[in-house]
Specification:
The chain has helices at residues 19-30, 110-113, 150-153, 165-173, 268-274, 286-289, 371-374, 415-420, 422-427, and strands at residues 79-80, 84-91, 121-128, 138-145, 176-185, 188-191, 199-201, 206-210, 229-231, 236-241, 247-251, 308-311, 321-323, 335-338, 343-349, 353-355, 357-365, 381-388, 393-398, 434-435, 437-442, 449-453, 477-482, 492-500, 526-531, 537-541, 552-556, 567-571, 577-583, 589-595, 622-628. By secondary structure, it is mainly β. The structure holds MU-OXO-diiron (FEO) and calcium ion (2 copies).
């Protein structure tokens, strides 16, 4: 998300306790560059660029993508390529249970909201019912509600500090996740309001801890005196899906929810490194009424947030589990992959400027018919962080307690300290500070990893490097990570630039795409990505309207002669970002989130009333289902 109502924390670098490590290293490397790339705005280094626009290659073939792309633009409507339809499946306020109260935006209350679809939906996962059958017409949909925007949510457009307690409770109830059964009949997706799967999860839902930080004193609070359970989830951005039929939801901008004087807590150094300042943020008003979000009254509560949470969407009584072995940061999402040796690999980005890319490799192996075994795979394994060298390699540095530098000498008493202060652990091993790492996923066809970096408006010429090659990276980029012989537990990979986003006609942007890129094929601020069954990458953007164009979904082949030739399929209504494109197994339906339509305006005078276009209804964040009118695979 782009956090509104307060200064965007993603654009402020968190203070490093050993800030010298990263910056000095980059300076050193900068002066040992090899050759100059011709593009004026780029770093003076030979970039490992992806092999594209190479029509003469014998292995090149045309991609299967064939649709008439739409034009860039910006208006109050959602636009799709010809012969495609978008059905609004769920909007903020829609009832999820047959006994729920019908939504009235002028009479909102927390109890009703607990049975309705929440606000600002982000991550979307479709999982077939039953999980073992790859059905594309019947499933359970899991959706994150990342945050709310009070000026868009309440009549009168109140600012955070003007909210009543009931309004705060309603906002709280609009956070978390919705889980709902859906079925496709005659090309239309319907929700089942009487389903046993349907569930709302909120910042007040009780959860458990597992892994190294479970039971540790730094996660103990009055609510959780043994440090084994905790309250709720919030700031849920993107996520991931496991092959054993659970979802992972990623807690991202949790620092915006706590208020108080951080200096007066024993966690000051840690919170500072996290960017948790206790200052006036969008949701710091929660701490006015609830001690849990007041950092001076409950100093360890913020240690209970910033995790990856595993949820079983097939069991509405399941207690969500915070998997602490995956570390604590501003988690964007989780790209889950079963390695060729059966170990489970999770790729994770920490979305803030100059933060890092992480990897977890499970100790034990995935067993397709032993779900109980699989349910503990994310509790034990090796966490590591990526160093991207200017020579085109990635070195994964382990974050393992007991081995230098993760020892008592540096303040780590156990692996619990390593996962609680994952950023600090990563600072010590020379991880490469990146341009806001967002989604990182494995291409199911090639087995290569695609890592999306959304932008970095404060990178400068002195701290560019080959993997973050542009000073003032306004538009973001996508790297392709290549594990040797598809071994995702290898210590070293190669990497290449896939796309440097921005306008290819702008010299300042220094963009890099396939040379045949069209007028509307270029984009800005990539955030989420997904792959269809043919291995094409679908890219959703967040922040494009900074350049006067709407956000949307672009698609590109990832191999062959059309590699990095992105094309625009869908354009968002004004103010909205698009999140989390997600396919049914047959790739004939693509779900995605339209988050914060009308953002930048107000409830009373919205810039769009998408999707209802009803004078009595504000714009509503929604999940849409995209299909082709002839029922063909999306994009073909
Ligand atoms: Fe919530 Fe990193 O976008
Ligand atoms: Ca984003
Ligand atoms: Ca995001």
């Amino acid at each position: 998300m782009a956090v509104k109502r307060h200064q965007d924390p993603d654009d402020n670098p968190a203070e490093r306790q050993s800030s010298s490590t990263a910056f000095q290293e980059i300076l050193k490397r900068r002066f040992s560059k090899r050759t100059f790339l011709k593009n004026a705005g780029l770093v003076a280094v030979a970039l490992p660029l992806t092999g594209i626009a190479n029509a003469s290659s014998s292995i090149s073939k045309s991609s299967s993508l064939s649709f008439n792309e739409i034009a860039h633009g910006l208006d109050k409507h959602l636009h799709l390529a010809k012969d495609y339809s978008a059905q609004v499946v769920l909007s903020w306020g829609d009832t999820l249970f047959s006994n729920a109260e019908k939504f009235d935006p002028n009479k909102q209350n927390s109890l009703s909201q607990l049975k309705q679809f929440g606000f600002n939906n982000d991550f979307v996962a479709y999982m077939p019912i039953p999980h073992s059958k790859k059905k594309s017409t019947h499933g359970v949909l899991t959706v994150n509600h990342e945050y709310v925007n009070s000026t868009m949510m309440h009549p009168g457009s109140p600012r955070a500090f003007e909210l009543s307690l009931e309004q705060i409770d309603t906002e709280m109830a609009a956070h978390g996740l919705s889980i709902v059964e859906i079925q496709k009949q005659e090309n239309k997706w319907n929700i089942n309001r009487d389903s046993k799967y349907n569930r709302r999860i909120t910042p007040l839902t009780e959860m458990k801890f597992s892994g190294p930080a479970r039971g540790h004193k730094r996660v103990k609070t009055e609510f959780s005196p043994r440090g084994e359970n905790c309250m709720g989830t919030f700031g849920n951005c993107a996520g991931g899906v496991t092959p054993w039929g659970t979802i992972l939801t990623a807690e991202e901008n949790i620092q915006a929810y706590f208020s108080g004087n951080v200096r007066k807590t024993s966690e000051y150094e840690s919170y500072k490194r996290f960017g948790l300042l206790g200052s006036k943020t969008a949701f710091s008003v929660w701490g006015k009424y609830y001690d849990h979000w007041n950092i001076n009254k409950t100093p360890q509560a913020a240690m209970q947030a910033g995790w990856v949470v595993e949820i079983d969407p097939y069991d509405s009584s399941f207690t969500p589990i915070k998997r602490t072995a995956l570390g604590r940061c501003k988690h964007e999402g989780c790209g889950v992959h079963v390695n060729k040796d059966g170990k489970v690999v999770v790729y994770m980005g920490d979305d803030q400027v100059f933060e890092y890319v992480y990897r977890f490799v499970s100790k034990n192996k995935y067993q397709p018919i032993d779900r109980e075994n699989n349910m503990s795979l994310l509790d034990e394994g090796e966490l590591s962080v990526a160093e991207f060298t200017d020579q085109g390699s990635i070195i994964w540095h382990p974050l393992q307690w007991g081995k230098k530098p993760h020892t008592k000498d540096n303040g780590f008493e156990s692996q619990a300290d390593v996962v609680l202060d994952m950023r600090k652990a990563a600072d010590l091993v020379g991880a490469t500070p990146m341009d806001r790492p967002e989604e990182i996923k494995v291409n199911p066809i090639s087995g290569n990893v695609f890592a999306v970096f959304t932008n970095n408006s404060i990178r400068n010429p002195l701290n560019t490097d080959a993997a973050n090659p542009r000073a003032v990276n306004r538009h973001g980029h996508i790297l392709e990570l290549l594990p040797p012989e598809q071994d995702h537990s290898a210590r070293e990979y190669k990497w290449e630039v896939f796309i440097l986003a921005g306008n290819p006609d702008s010299k300042i942007d220094s963009a890099y795409y396939h040379s045949d890129i069209s007028e509307s094929g270029w984009f800005s601020s990539p955030d989420n990505c997904s792959f269809d069954k043919n291995g094409n990458i679908w890219i959703a953007t967040d922040g494009f309207n900074r350049s006067g164009k709407a956000d949307g979904i672009w698609v590109s082949a990832t191999s062959g002669k059309d590699k990095a030739l992105s094309r625009l399929l869908l354009r968002a209504p004004i103010g909205a970002e698009i999140c989390s494109p997600c396919f049914t197994p047959d790739s004939k339906t693509m779900f995605c989130s339209v988050q914060h339509p009308g953002d930048g305006s107000r409830f009373d005078q919205p810039s769009t009333r998408w999707p209802d276009f009803d004078e009595n209804m504000p714009p509503r964040p929604s999940v849409i289902a995209i299909t082709q009118d002839n029922d063909k695979i999306i994009g073909t």
